[in-house]
Amino acid sequence: MGLLRTIVLGREDGFRARLRRAVLGGGGNAAKGAPTPAPTPTSDAGWGGASPAAAEPALGLHPEAPKDVTPPEGFEVVLHKDALAAGSVVEIIIGGTAVAVANVDGTFYATTNTCPHADGPLGEGSLDGRILTCPYHGWAFDVADGACKTNPDVKIETYDVQVVDTAVCVRI
Prior knowledge:
Blueprint: H1 2-9, H2 15-24, H3 56-59, E1 75-80, E2 88-94, E3 97-104, E4 107-112, E5 126-128, E6 131-133, E7 140-142, E8 158-164, E9 167-171
Antiparallel strand pairs: 1-9, 2-3, 3-4, 4-8, 5-6, 6-7, 8-9
């Protein structure tokens, strides 16, 4: 049941759990391992009266992605360059595609968000230098070239990234 809970609700310290805590409030954990209730919209303002934008600082996604930057042809603005701290990774949805964006000492990289081993969410994984580790079973990938450190026969897709002014732009 633990794996199913993780798949549905996310890891206790993962993106979805941080989003729930930020939107619904409550920093304390009830019982260790007890499922956190899923957020449910209760008004037109959404998420119990709090807007999802109010959750940005708690998720490490502040400031908001710049809207006044024109990305290069074929690229999409995904976040503000100061929104993701060095050594961090986050899941971003671009045109319906889930992408893991990583900040390695000020250099941004983007990969597919799905681990080829067991479809783990790489954007919820851990980043050590350029090595991104899947939160499900620990498969490790180099974010620069997609090479798998766990199984050399496997490689994940990487995407071109450019920083334009204050915007991180990714080409899918």
